[in-house]
Amino acid sequence: MTTPRLIRLPRLRPGDQVAVVAPSGPIAPERLDCGLDILRGWDLDPVASPGTRGSHDTLSYLAASDEGRAHELQQAWCDPSVAAVFAARGGYGAQRMVDLLDWDALRAAAPKPLVGFSDVTVLHEAFAVRAGVSSLHGPAVAGEVFLKDEATREHLRRTLFAPETVRTLASGTSRPLVPGRARGVTVGGCLAMLASEVGTAHARRGVPGGLLLLEDVGEPPYRIDRALTQLSRAGWLDGVAEIVLGSWARCGPYAQVREVLRDRLGGLGVPVVEEFGFGHGDSALTLPLGVPAELDATAGTLTLEIPALS
After folding, report:
1. How far is the C-alpha of 102 from the C-alpha of 78, rounded, in Å?
2. CB 82 within 8 A of CB 18
3. What is the mean pLDDT of residues 137-166?
């Protein structure tokens, strides 16, 4: 069984109302305000959930209680007046609340873009597996790269409003770790979160035919090795068609990271491209998940067979 193509989502249009939620960690108010202003500059009407300006009573690394974060995400997704849901930031916490969501209600609601990365990988996986819905691995509204880098913002804006203009993705830093060309359906995100999902009740057992996207932050080389080894031992990498590697910010000297990636992934016999410019780096492409695409690792291009949004 191959990794399925997922339900495509509608593009945004000027004047759309969008929700900004905090499924994981707390947000600095000044960063949130700047991010909301950027969305308003795109002629969107952003509404921030109350949890984006709060924090957990005792656990300072969470934006609110698990029940509160789950309720706000579900409310935003199920609200027919909301055209898209943006994560304000990552951090940690999505694993704690994902099983509190009413998946029957989420499946019954009209699907819409979910934008985020890092810890939001848990939600990307959950919406793919439990609802069959695609999503966007893109910057967080209150994240540093979104606030500081114009190229990051512009690529997300074009993906949301004019997805046919960003069918071919490329990064000036990319290069082949293993040359070659192959097709697959995009899947993946933050390596540590993918590895920590293995063995949970609703996790995938593998991604055969998948075009696997991987990146991470703050993980030293031995922990990258451990996460990749966990995925390999679990059979999760069996049948992967190709691999796209993003940024490894604050993961140690990149030469050491590369050797781990080469050691753990180079023997799979599939094309692998590195430094593709998504994730936690200084600039970040928005990559759709659940969309068929072709990777040319030698040329350093990822071509979507269809636009990310309809």
Report:
1. 10
2. yes
3. 98
Q: How far apart are CA 198 and CA 250, in angstroms?
A: 24
pTM of the model: 0.97
Choosing from 71, 124, 155, 280, which is the catalytic residue? 280
Domains of the chain as residue ranges with CATH: 17-165 (3.40.50.10740), 167-304 (3.50.30.60)
Q: What SS3 state is found at 290? A: coil
| 305 catalytically annotated | no
Q: For the chain, what's the residue count?
A: 310
Q: Which of 72, 125, 197, 215 is catalytic?
A: 215
Give the CA distances from residue 160 to residues 11, 12, 154, 195, 256, in Å, rounded to whole numbers and listed in that order: 5, 6, 10, 29, 36
pLDDT value of residue 1: 58
Does 118 participate in catalysis according to the annotation?
Answer: yes
- What percent of the chain has a predicted confidence (pLDDT) above 90? 97
Q: Which of 24, 65, 118, 247 is catalytic?
A: 118
* Residues 6+ positions from 104 with CB-CB distance below 8 Å: none
- Whether 280 is a known active-site residue: answer yes
